[in-house]
């Protein structure tokens, strides 16, 4: 999720049973009109659409459709018709006459989806029917969508920028003060108003407390894609730049407790010949800089998550290394020159460029 500028708008509905059903019906294809294709990425099998709902034509929506991974368990592969059966038996066509190749007319199935998350302007649905020849599509909806949302999803070049302590204090901090982020969705999670079924634990200690919540982008199905956020209770800690040696106990507690709780939750004894195990040393923890939202949080992912732009070098800082650096120098992240990535269409990049009356010393790079 991004950190939108604070604006005056009506309070969106939070999670509830009736609202979940409302989302499923409201965001079906029959209720959407396409305005434009914002992004189509073949490598991630994702398309981002600008749409308007027929029921609310004066409001914009961003719809992100992404092909979900195939299941890795034999029973699930058979159930979803990816394969007919396992190799334990070799049936003939006579055994399964219904599987003989036939010509048949493909018709669009009835719309079928589950509402996964509804928090502030963000909704997440898992689509299982209603799209021709598609099974298992992860659908994210931002509605109503504002200009800062569109900037995030439009095609944009990426730049490398060297952020010194002076640049941070004279340019970045003033930008954040003038454009205070709307973190309503974070407050909703911490207060228990939204995503309660996705929260693994919540510690309300004002100094070292945190909430461990399943990231809205993970559908909870493939363990290798696991992604959780550990969001701290303290509101005075926004990012790496704010951390000092005095915060090491908080970081260690969040790191240790997060790993322990996740390993316990996702280690499942053998059932019907299938077991699942997650060890603490299979859980990678990192902190983004710059963060996607300015309220200190830690990412927990499976070490085998594969190619993930979220873990790109220069952006993801391993928590163990952060702790060691703070133990060596309490003001390490206050004084350090940070190599960061900025998208050319981001408000922060524009602000930095305008303030300096020239574009910062940058090197073009490709998006990953």
Automatic annotation (TrEMBL):
It is an enzyme of class 3 (hydrolase). It is found in: Nucleus. GO terms for cellular component: nucleus; P-body. It holds the Pfam family DcpS. One of its GO terms (biological process) is deadenylation-dependent decapping of nuclear-transcribed mRNA. The active site is at residue 297. Its EC number is 3.6.1.59. Keywords: Hydrolase, mRNA processing, Nucleus. SUPFAM superfamilies: HIT-like, mRNA decapping enzyme DcpS N-terminal domain. Its main location: nucleus. One of its GO terms (molecular function) is 5'-(N(7)-methyl 5'-triphosphoguanosine)-[mRNA] diphosphatase activity. Belongs to the HIT family. Decapping scavenger enzyme that catalyzes the cleavage of a residual cap structure following the degradation of mRNAs by the 3'->5' exosome-mediated mRNA decay pathway. This is m7GpppX diphosphatase.
């Amino acid at each position: 999720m991004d950190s939108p500028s604070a604006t005056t708008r009506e309070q969106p509905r939070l999670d509830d049973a009736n609202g979940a059903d409302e989302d499923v019906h409201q965001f079906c294809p029959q209720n959407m009109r396409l305005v434009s294709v914002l992004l189509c990425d073949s490598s991630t099998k994702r398309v981002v659409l600008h749409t308007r709902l027929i029921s609310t034509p004066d409001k914009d929506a961003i719809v992100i459709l992404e092909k979900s991974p195939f299941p890795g368990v034999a029973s699930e592969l058979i159930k979803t018709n990816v394969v007919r059966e396992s190799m334990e038996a070799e049936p003939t066509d006579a055994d399964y006459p219904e599987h003989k190749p036939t010509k048949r007319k493909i018709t669009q199935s009835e719309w079928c989806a589950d509402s996964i998350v509804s928090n502030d302007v963000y909704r997440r649905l898992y689509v299982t029917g209603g799209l021709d020849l598609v099974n298992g599509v992860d659908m994210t909806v931002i509605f109503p969508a504002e200009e800062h949302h569109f900037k995030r999803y439009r095609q944009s070049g990426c730049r490398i920028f060297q952020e010194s302590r002076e640049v941070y204090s004279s340019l970045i901090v003033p930008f954040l003060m003038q454009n205070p982020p709307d973190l309503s969705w974070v407050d909703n999670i911490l207060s228990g108003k939204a995503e309660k079924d996705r929260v693994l634990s919540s510690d309300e200690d004002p100094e070292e407390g945190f909430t461990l919540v399943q990231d809205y982008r993970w559908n909870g199905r493939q363990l290798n894609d696991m992604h959780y956020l550990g969001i701290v209770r303290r509101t005075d800690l926004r990012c790496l730049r704010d951390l000092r040696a005095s915060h090491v106990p908080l970081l260690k507690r969040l790191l240790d407790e997060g790993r322990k709780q996740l390993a316990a939750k996702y280690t499942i004894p053998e059932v019907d010949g299938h077991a699942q195990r997650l060890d603490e040393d299979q859980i990678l923890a990192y902190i983004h800089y710059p963060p996607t939202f300015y309220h200190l949080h830690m990412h927990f992912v499976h070490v085998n998550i594969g190619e993930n732009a979220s873990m790109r070098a220069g952006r993801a800082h391993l928590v163990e290394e952060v702790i060691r650096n703070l133990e060596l120098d309490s003001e390490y992240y206050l004084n350090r020159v940070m190599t960061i990535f900025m998208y050319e269409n981001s408000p922060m990049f524009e602000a930095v460029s305008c303030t300096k009356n020239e574009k910062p010393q940058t090197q073009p790079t490709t998006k990953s």
